[in-house]
């Protein structure tokens, strides 16, 4: 709908413009306002969401796990995209040309591509980390330290920087000229569709294929362990039942005290024939009540047994609690990883499909569709913090505490 205020403003200026041109100007202004509102809102949400991730990691000590260090690195890359990339690209779209000069153009592109590639590399590292944690729980988790995680994060950012920054900044000096027009901003060495196609394969399709394969292997291993646990519980239950039955039969058979299990009656008769007085003494001892020392010994034995049983039960409960906490953390990590990978594929796939189409059919993709696809890649940085909150209760409660100013600001 064309803004009536815009038409009234143009009429008052006294410009000698026809009505159709006035309407075109107003439509452009209205579209620009809508674009600024939508992209500005997404930028604010992206910045706030990823700052919440960084503050949560600082505030809540339970979030300082090795896996969450990778999420912290991912949030830092997303924060750069939300702060810088989104706003500069919106300005470029609305103005219709690049007005900040070639130096800032190359700097923006370098930072944008390095941060985006770092996001992909961090996702790869997270996928490999989850894969080795599930498939090699004993050997890998001993090596899974904070120092190792920081090293992997440093490698992810270093590789991303080496792959993109020098080529973007210095390609014009390598070929001897700058072929990008002053009013435009794009990567010079990606002017050929085949080059763009190869970079899309390396930067998106190959990492996505590896992530999908690793996630499938993780799923298979998790299902296999669940089946093994069910079968193990079933076998343990039948073993305990057989043991209980055998113990009950032993109690029924061995309820009386037998001096000689081979021939108890003969033994009693021989004792009686040998020494009647001794036999009477034995009988009197058997018939007399136990002494106080004997009673005390029996009482202490019962107390010790009860105390040992109590300690054993408490230790078993603690072990089960830790196992349950470990399983819960594994489930949280798996849910978070699956949500992040799904969001990454959904937001990056449209643009990379257009890259493939453009390789074989140039001028088939409208400029508006290119802009939407490129912007959708940025939206991935908006969605990631939501994935943490939806899939991880600790992140969710910490986000809520920060937004409601409940706790922890004195620790910052």
Automatic annotation (TrEMBL):
Major localisation: membrane
G-protein coupled receptors family 1 profile domain residues: 49-388
Keywords on record: Cell membrane, G-protein coupled receptor, Glycoprotein, Membrane, Phosphoprotein, Postsynaptic cell membrane, Receptor, Synapse, Transducer, Transmembrane, Transmembrane helix
Transmembrane segments: 32-57, 69-95, 107-128, 149-174, 194-219, 333-351, 371-391
Biased composition (Polar residues): 237-247, 278-297
Cellular compartments annotated: Cell membrane; Postsynaptic cell membrane
Disordered: region residues: 237-297
Bias kind Basic and acidic residues: ranges: 267-277
Pfam families tied to this protein: 7tm_1
GO biological process: adenylate cyclase-inhibiting G protein-coupled acetylcholine receptor signaling pathway; G protein-coupled receptor signaling pathway, coupled to cyclic nucleotide second messenger; regulation of smooth muscle contraction
GO molecular function terms listed in the Swiss-Prot or TrEMBL record: G protein-coupled acetylcholine receptor activity; G protein-coupled serotonin receptor activity
Coiled-coil annotated spans: none
Membrane topology according to the record: Multi-pass membrane protein
One cellular component term from this protein's GO annotations in UniProt: postsynaptic membrane
Function: The muscarinic acetylcholine receptor mediates various cellular responses, including inhibition of adenylate cyclase, breakdown of phosphoinositides and modulation of potassium channels through the action of G proteins. Primary transducing effect is Pi turnover.
Family in the record: Belongs to the G-protein coupled receptor 1 family. Muscarinic acetylcholine receptor subfamily.
Protein name: Muscarinic acetylcholine receptor
Provenance organism: Oryzias melastigma (Marine medaka)
